[in-house]
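HOLO CASE FILE
Compound: EPS
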Amino acid sequence: MLRFLTAGESHGPELLGILEGMPAGLELDVERINDDLRRRQGGYGRSGRQRIEHDEVVFLGGVERERTTGAPIAIRVENRDYPNQLKREKPVLTVPRPGHADLAGAQKYRLDDMRTVLERASARETAMRVAIGAIAKQLLWRFGIGVWSQVLAIGEVTAEPADLSDPEARRHVEESPVRVADAAAGERMVAAIDEARRARDTLGGIVEVTVAGAPVGLGSYVQWDRKLDGRLAQAVMSIQAIKGVEIGSAFANALAPGTRVHDAIVPSDFGPVRTSNRAGGLEGGVTTGGQVVVRAAMKPISTTLTPMQSVDVRTGNPARATYQRSDICAVPAASVVAEAMVALVMADAFLEKVGGDSISEIAERYGAPR
Ligand code: EPS
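Model generated. C-alpha cells follow.
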C-alpha cells in the first residue's frame, strides 16, 4: 500500500524522497516532522557534521496547505554541508575502511574511487527515512496508534526497557542525551562514549521500538511475505549499521523452556487476553493487540580514529584505513530511524487491513479514536 524511495548523496546538494500510497486528507504537523529530524540529529557522540546540518523538510508534491492530497508526496531535505564540500579537495579513496561498504561496493560496481560508495551507503540517507516515517507516524497517531523508541544498550552499559506507553517515561527518554528513561544508566552510557572517544574507538548498542494501540490482525500467517514480523525485521535490518533484529525478547526466549516463554491466555470481559507479552505483540506474523516490540543491534561505527588494518587496492599492499570525520556513537539516532522504519511498515499493514483512499473514508470504517 505504501512505498517509498530515497535518493541523494551524503555530500551532495540534497536528499530526495517519494512516499506513495498515503491517503488524502491527512493533516500534517510539519513542525513535528522537523522535530523528528532534530531528534535524529541529536544524541551524545555525534560528529561535527550535525552542527552544520539543520534538517528541515520542503514538500515538492502531494501536500496542499499541510494536507495530503493522495498524490505521491515528494520531499527534499537540504545538505547544508554541500558548499563546504565543493571547496574541499577530495583525494581518491583506495584503502577500504573495514566494516564499511567501501570494498564490497567498489567490487560490485567496479568503481575506482570508494568515495562514490560511501556517498550513498552513508547513514546521512536516514534523514529522509525519518522525514517519510514521520508522515507514517502521523497517520498511525490519527487512529490511536503510537510508535516510540528508546535505547537499551550502548557498548556494555545496559538500561531496563521503560514502558513507553507512559508519557512520563517518554519525556525522560526525550530529555536524555542517549534516549534512555533511567538517568543513572544514561550517565554511565555518556561516560562510556567519552571513554571510547579517549580510546580513539567507537561504540554500538541496542535500540527498542514500541508500537501501542495497533489492532489485532495486522499482517498474516498465510504467506511468508505477509508475515508482519518478517516485514518489520527487513525494514529495520535495512538501516545502516544494524546487524540484528529481534521481536520481543526473542534471543532470551530461545534460552528458556517453552512454559516460561509463551504468553498464557486467560478469559476477560473483553474476550481472551494474554497475561504477558514475551512474543512482542506478534504470533504467526499477526498482531495480537499487545504492544509490538522490535529491538535492533547496531554495530560500532566503522570509521575509527585508530586506523584499522586494510589494503590499498591500487597497489595490493597492506595499508591503514584513513580517518574521515565521523560519529563515535550513533545509537540514539538509530533509535529514531528505527522508529520511522517500524512506523512505515505498521502504516502499510494498517492501510492493508482498513483500506481507504482518504482519512475520512478510513475513519468511517475503522472509527477514529482521536
Ligand atoms: C556517516 C558519516 C558521517 C556522519 C554521517 C554518516 O558523515 P561525514 O563524513 O559527512 O561527517 O556524519 O551522518 C550524517 C551526515 C547524518 O546526517 O546522519 C556514514 O558514513 O554513514
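CASE NOTES: The longest helix spans residues 331-354. The CA atoms of residues 159 and 167 lie 18 Å apart.
CLOSED: yes
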